[in-house]
Amino acid sequence: MRLALATTEAMMTFDDLDPRPQRGAALAALGREDLDLYSVEELTERIAALEAEIARDRAAIAAKSAKKSAADALFNFGQ
Predict the structure, then answer these.
(1) What is the top-level taxon of the source organism (predicted)?
(2) Which residues contact 11 (CB under 8 A, 6 or more apart)?
């Protein structure tokens, strides 16, 4: 349920007051998780999900590298 507080300037929800998760917190939590609780099938599914996340990370790296290369070419850095 989302509750909203009306003000004359803007709408603010209680969700806006929640602290944002720390960057890297999910990755740290993965490393602390007890894998003995998972079945072989669940571990296989977990690996597939993690491999999909790795592919997403690699795509983000490639996109950022392409943007940097384009910016470097535009501004003639390194020449």
Answers:
(1) Bacteria
(2) 4, 5
Q: What digits encode the pLDDT tens for the residues 32-74?
A: 999 999 999 999 999 999 999 999 999 999 999 999 988 888 8
The alpha-helical segments, DSSP class H, found in 1-79 are 25-32, 40-75
Instruction: Tell me how crowded residue 12 is: count the other CB atoms within 10 A of its CB.
Output: 13
CA–CA gap between residue 1 and residue 26 (Å, rounded)? 24
pTM to 2 decimals? 0.63
Find where tokens 């720390």 sit. 22
As beta bridge partners, residue 5 has 12
